Amino acid sequence: MSDELSGDSGVVSRPERSPGIKLLFVGLIAAVLIIPLMLVWALVYDRQNQAETAQSSIVEGWAGSQVIAGPIISVPFTATEEQTTEQNGQTTTKTVEVERTLFISANSNEVATTMDPEEKQRSIYQTVVYNAEFTGKANFELPADLERFGVDVDTLKWDQAQLRIGVSDARGLTEGGTLTANGEALELRPGRGPAATSGEGFFAFVNWNGEGALAVDYKFGVRGSKSLSLVPRGGLTKWDVSSPWASPSFHGARLPDERDIQESGFTANWAVPQLALGDPPVTTSDYGPPQIQSPGDRFSSVEIYGDGSASSSGSQAISVDLIEPVDLYSKVDRAVKYGFLFIGFTFLAYFLFDIVGGARVASAEYLLTGAGLVLFFVLLLAFAEVVGFTFAYIVASAATIGLLAAYSAAVLGSWKRAKFMGALLVGLYALLFVLLNLEGLSLLIGSVMLFAALAGVMYATRDIDWSSVGRSKSGQAVTTTA
Q1: pTM to 2 decimals?
Q2: 248 shares its domain with 358
């Protein structure tokens, strides 16, 4: 019988698996390889967290992302209110005096900021920090209809009036700050910043009784890392920012009205009118910290400055980030998501050589080839952290293509077929690099390539009988040497 072992000849006769069964086995092996791909994805996430921890330690003694607010003027005043108490079943109402604070926003505030970036590195990790210089002019004027805001002008304690500027991380304040009101230099004191910066910053007592206009000029320097935000208040707020950093990112409540980004740096200009903010010129409760969502990939997180307890409503902020030109973890993360397509195309080529070209590819050979494809992403991550993404991609892809092309020569029994596999892998890795750099067109390019691949497979397998068992024309089973 054809399925019996011949002891003399050492030949085993067995039916060959049908193309359908082979395809099923190939699919199962590819599905198993999803597990190591997910482990690589988790590794990228872990290395990203480790990099963020290292970057935080780098800027620990510098300062974090900065939020600037003000200037505003705070003036305490007394107000009367009715308090109702209940005791022994009797309700008593009495009128008491309480002290509150009036916060006066500027009618106009023009701010110019220059950001001087610097890259700091520890081991293989690096982050960008900056020194920023603020120069500004603000004009204040008490509303003529102040009583409509529930404030009696006669109760304002002008001898305790303060001019406040907020800096969210006061560790970043540098020497040389100046503050003048109507040409009079004021003595700067620490703390008491607006609620938008959780009370951090600096202030000065100001000689103003609310009559006429108050012109304020200020200048100060601040250190920070990654991002810088400004909280517009009151009337028209103009903010001009310039820096030699060539990779800014703008976000927040309002994007710049004008921007110019060159290799030599960038400039950006905001003009935020009062109507766009919806803020009254005066208020008896200060606005709490803004919520700032930095743009980016899935690793981005919301930063909240302070606990927001100063006010039930938060402030709005306009922001600029100094981002790294190449976010390698984001690119590696996106590359891993294409890993299954690499495995699918490579396995598909092996499968076609098997059922069309007659090369017999074992399950173990599929598995080893898949392991080589998964290892590419580990190599890419490891080299990218040291030499940068582009060079790491070239090294990792060249190593993987060379390994799998040489292995294919043994698996497929022909260097001609191995060269085809090498060319296929070169095309796949070149396509992936294009997809990673053309994010907006990645879906279009990928879908067209998948359609072309499907059409090619359908054409190559159009004459295959998927239910055949691989018998010869005479109906005898294929024999193989044991």
Answers
A1: 0.71
A2: no
pLDDT digits (tens, 9 = 90+) for 125-180: 778 899 999 999 999 999 888 888 888 888 899 999 999 999 999 999 998 899 99
Is residue 304 domain-shared with residue 195, that is, in the same domain? Answer: yes
Domain boundary residue among 304, 325, 346?
325
Q: Are residues 353 and 424 in the same domain?
A: yes
Question: Residue 4 has which token pair?
Answer: 């019996």
pLDDT at 395: 94
Burial (0-12, 13-18, 19+ Cβ within 10 Å), 325: exposed
Nearest-CA neighbor of 332 among 435, 247, 436, 230?
A: 436
191 phi-psi bin (left φ>0, alpha ψ -120 to 50, beta other): left
What secondary structure, in 3-state letters, does 82-103 show?
EEEEEECCEEEEEEEEEEEEEE
Q: Do residues 342 and 318 both lie within one domain? A: no
Contact status, residue 189 vs residue 233, Cβ threshold 8 Å: no
DSSP-derived pairing of the beta strands 5-6 and 201-205: unpaired
- At 325-375, the pLDDT tens digits run 667 888 888 888 888 888 888 888 888 887 776 778 888 888 899 899 999
Cross-strand pairs, 128: 119
Query: In this structure, what CATH number is given to the domain that contains residue 316?
Result: 2.60.40
Contact (Cβ atoms closer than 8 angstroms) between residue 63 and residue 223: yes
Which residues form the domain of 401? 19-49+329-463
Q: CB count, 10 Å around CB of 87?
A: 7
Residue 333: HSE in the Cβ half-sphere, 13 Å Cα cutoff: 15
Which residues neighbour 338 within 8 Å (Cβ) at sequence distance 6 or greater? 432, 435
Q: Is residue 216 part of a domain?
A: yes
Q: Structural domain tally of the chain?
A: 2
